[in-house]
From TrEMBL:
InterPro entries membership: ComplexI_NDUFA9_subunit (IPR051207), NAD(P)-bd_dom (IPR016040), NAD(P)-bd_dom_sf (IPR036291)
PANTHER family assigned to the protein according to its UniProt record, in alphabetical order: NADH DEHYDROGENASE [UBIQUINONE] 1 ALPHA SUBCOMPLEX SUBUNIT 9, MITOCHONDRIAL, NADH-UBIQUINONE OXIDOREDUCTASE 39 KDA SUBUNIT-RELATED
Domain of life: Bacteria
GO molecular function, one term: protein-containing complex binding
Protein's name according to its UniProt entry: NAD(P)-binding domain-containing protein
Residue ranges constituting the NAD(P)-binding domain according to the UniProt record: 7-174
Amino acid sequence: MRIAIAGATGQVGSPLAEAAARTGHDVVRLARSTGVDLTAPVDPALLAGADVVVDVTRTALREEEASAAFFTAVATNLGEAARSAGVSRTVLLSIIGVDRIGRAPREPAGRGPEDHYRAKWAHEQATREHAPGVRIVRAAQFHDLARVLLLALREGDTSRVAEMPVQPVALEVVVDTLLDVATGTVDEPVVEVAGPRVERFCDLAAAFATRDVPGLHVEPAPVSAVLAGGALLPGPDAVLGGPDFQTWFRHSNVASSP
């Protein structure tokens, strides 16, 4: 198959491109570093002969309106180019629970952590509107996300991290699932993928703090009712794959300093 990957040089796109090439697929890498700005109209010629487009784009923007605008632009430009090029399938990487969060009333306590999830819900909607043959892969939080936010939210010797249940997953499990959906081995409109065990997100951050940042205290931060109630947890039909967080943490090669 010819697989075009949007965001092909990022955290997910890079191993996905490697896995696709390793299993014999022809990979088209779309990213700023390869000369493609997905926030501008995309030349359909870049997708010539592609069987599927996989969108794993990310943004550092966290404020809802700005990140939603980014994702909507990417989905529109990529989707219109795919239709013009005759691509038959689109696979979008999203997040478990964005539909429940996107439809729920906004609560003041949920503003911070929910902004990104609401923006990804907009990403899903724009992809469905503009792209051909849409399949959605909704993943749980990656094992290392708690460390990223631990450091990003640090104020002095305290980091306030969301107190909410999650079922963190290894990046490799998500990559395998994306490839299965891209090739049609798994063919469902929406596929959820998560790890095997429920954890408290703030506890994951505390584990990283103890190991990597001596003296940094994690303070659980309240979240909205929808997040506290398990919106980020997978449903009964989800693809579950190990290792669990504790096993991954013991063997992780994350740098021991921030």
